[in-house]
Amino acid sequence: MRQSLAMAKETVSLSGNSVSKSPFPIDIVYLWIDGSDSKFRKAKAEYLRAAGRDDSMYRDATKDQIFRDNDELKYSLRSVEKFAPWINHIYIVTGFGQVPNWLNTKNSRITIVPQESILPADASPVFNSCAIEASLANIPGLAEHFLLANDDMFFNAPVAPDYFFDMSGLAKFRAIYRKDGRKTDDKKSLYSILLYNAARAIDDAFGTDLYNYKSSHGIDPYIKSSMIECYENPGLAACISATRYHRFRDTTDVHRLIFNLYDIVRGRVRIVRVHSRHIGHNIVFDFLYNLIHYTSVRDSVFYCRDAIESNVLSCNAKIVCINDGVDTTDKNIANNKKFFETKFPNKSEFEK
């Protein structure tokens, strides 16, 4: 009989008291690359040709915009210092010998992690975030409890450790519930396919229907030992290993959601139901939707392309993601720069 966890999930109330310290260290891992680097661009072009691919098949697979650096990491680290100073250590996973030119690498809380040091020896280089995310538990010294962020994600308000983990060490998985989790017919994006692949792998291994869960697009908590256990599970090892060997995103990759779903199966997570804030659809319907779901919208990630147009300065969300994609305009980039300088004007200890 198919197992269902719908009745077993626990929704966490975030209205209780927060704490400023955690009983265990919590690290943060960033993925960062500068796609304008000539060495990177040359290698990407060569490997695309060798694979018989171009950069037009999927909008979020190989396009230059997904590798673009707009200094978001600098401002994200400023947000760590300002709003999450309790974070223990910061790991920045990168490739091609790159290091941000503004980064203070002598800071004892910063470690640069070359992608080749955590991937299989014959898998590097990769241009596939899924491959890197499937290898994070190999980071030397990484704490048992850690957060994962892209460089375009930042803390928008004071946040305590118990936003991510309860005091017993369980991760808080901020999940958006959707009705179309089995749909994989989006020909413009790999995202829905990769989510489906993760849920399908869990279904095949455990007979558990978790297709309708996806994580909100923000800074998420993970447990290293559970991730390693997931790597090694006989029913999951093959698809995770294959993902680690794909230089570019592939229709057979599994999204890092697989680790969240594995934690659900193993009872190592507390599910926090959230709703993404609606903006830019219909001003009246957006207002009503955000009002009806006020609490879960507030506790979700605020996701946008343009921080000024989306009025992020008046947003009280803990986490914000300003996504730079193929539809991002020069105006969007300028507005985001203006926002960052307004929100985080002061240099952090992580800068030279």
What is shown here, in short?
With 352 residues, the chain is an alpha/beta fold.
CATH fold call: Spore Coat Polysaccharide Biosynthesis Protein SpsA, Chain A
Whole-number count of domains:
1
Our measurement of the CA-to-CA distance between the termini, rounded to an integer number of angstroms, reads 59 Å
Using only CA atoms, what is the Rg? 19 Å
Give an overview in words.
The chain has ten helices and eleven strands. The strands form three sheets. Strands 3-2-1-4-8 form a five-stranded mixed beta sheet. A three-stranded mixed beta sheet has the order 5-11-10. Residues 1-19 and 58-62 have low confidence and may be disordered. It has a single domain (26-343), classed as Spore Coat Polysaccharide Biosynthesis Protein SpsA, Chain A (Alpha-Beta Complex). Helix content is 29%, strand content 14%. It starts with 25 loop residues before the first strand and ends in a 9-residue tail after the last helix. It has 352 residues and is α/β, with parallel strands linked by helices. The protein has helices at 38-50, 72-83, 129-133, 191-206, 224-232, 237-244, 257-266, 283-292, 294-298, 330-343; strands at residues 26-31, 90-94, 110-114, 145-150, 153-155, 171-177, 213-215, 220-223, 269-273, 302-304, 319-322. α4 runs parallel beside α7 (257-266). The radius of gyration is 19 Å and the shape is globular.
